[in-house]
Each structure stands twice: as structure tokens, then as C-alpha cells.
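STRUCTURE:
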């Protein structure tokens, strides 16, 4: 019997951003958990590097949260398109060219260029996914929406943690 079966079900508003994100994120967490179980069965080593495993899982959860939020928002926002594009590009690089020197050099050059330009506007462009190509009005609009979505993301993740850590009587 499920320990949470006695709790009342709350009707979901499938049109709300919070619900769409939560459902996608929980599905992604379930997939990550399943993959980790398979990976641990195949590659179990008693002296594995726990820090590396924890960092790897943290990264997977972070990407899952970002992808879930971007997918919940849909393609109507530039930042969500940029997040999904960045994730797809990282998958492609991982599969084909992940550690090639030219990619590493290009990343360092881009970071250096952003630092040289400086200023609060450039910093904001760097923080908002896809912000590099936007004019100021669009950048501010996307920033406001992105902050709203990040706040929703944090609140849903807190709710999940609270739900999972609450003792069942």
C-alpha cells in the first residue's frame, strides 16, 4: 500500500505553469532515478568517487529542471528556446566532440569577451538564456518572465523536497 494513499488528491490546473513544470520535472526525475539504478547495477565499484557521482547527478537534475521549465513555457519565449537549444547542443557535443580543444578554446574566448564588454546590461545579457541577441526592451521583458519561471521552479522543487521529507503516520 502506498504510504501517501490516505492523503487527499488535489485537483490539478493543467494550464498553470507550475503544474506543467512539476509534471515534466517529476517525470524527468523518475527517468534519472531509473538510469542511475541501471548504471549502478552495471558499473558498481566499491571504491567509486562519491563526489564525482554526486556532482554528475546534481548536473543531471539541474539540466532536467531547466529543460522541464523551458518545455513547460514552450517556444513563445526566447529564453526557453535558448535553453532547449543549449541542451540539445550539449547532447550533440557530448556525443561527438565533447573534449575537443577547439570547443574549450572557443568557450574561454567567449567568456573573456563578455568580461571585457562589462556593464550591467552585458551581465544581464549573459545571465538570461538567449539574451545576447536581444534589444533592451525584449531583454527586460524576457528577464522578468525568466525570473518568474525561476521562482516557480524553486517553489515546486521546495514542495517536492517537503513532500518527500515529511514523515508519514
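SEQUENCE:
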Amino acid at each position: 500500500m502506498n504510504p501517501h494513499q490516505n492523503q487527499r488528491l488535489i485537483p490539478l490546473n493543467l494550464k498553470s505553469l507550475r503544474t506543467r513544470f512539476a509534471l515534466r520535472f517529476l517525470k524527468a526525475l523518475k527517468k534519472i532515478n531509473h538510469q542511475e539504478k541501471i548504471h549502478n547495477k552495471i558499473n558498481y565499484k566499491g571504491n567509486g568517487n562519491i563526489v564525482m557521482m554526486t556532482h554528475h547527478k546534481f548536473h543531471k537534475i539541474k539540466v532536467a529542471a531547466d529543460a522541464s521549465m523551458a518545455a513547460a513555457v514552450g517556444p513563445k519565449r526566447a529564453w526557453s528556446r535558448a535553453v532547449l537549444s543549449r541542451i540539445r547542443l550539449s547532447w550533440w557535443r557530448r556525443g561527438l566532440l565533447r573534449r575537443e580543444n577547439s570547443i574549450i578554446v572557443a568557450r574561454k574566448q567567449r567568456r573573456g569577451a563578455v568580461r571585457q564588454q562589462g556593464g550591467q546590461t552585458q551581465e544581464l545579457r549573459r545571465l538570461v538564456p538567449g539574451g545576447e541577441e536581444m534589444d533592451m526592451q525584449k531583454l527586460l521583458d524576457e528577464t522578468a518572465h525568466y525570473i518568474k519561471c525561476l521562482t516557480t521552479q524553486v517553489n515546486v522543487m521546495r514542495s517536492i523536497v517537503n513532500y518527500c521529507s515529511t514523515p508519514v503516520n
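REMARK: The mean pLDDT is 79.
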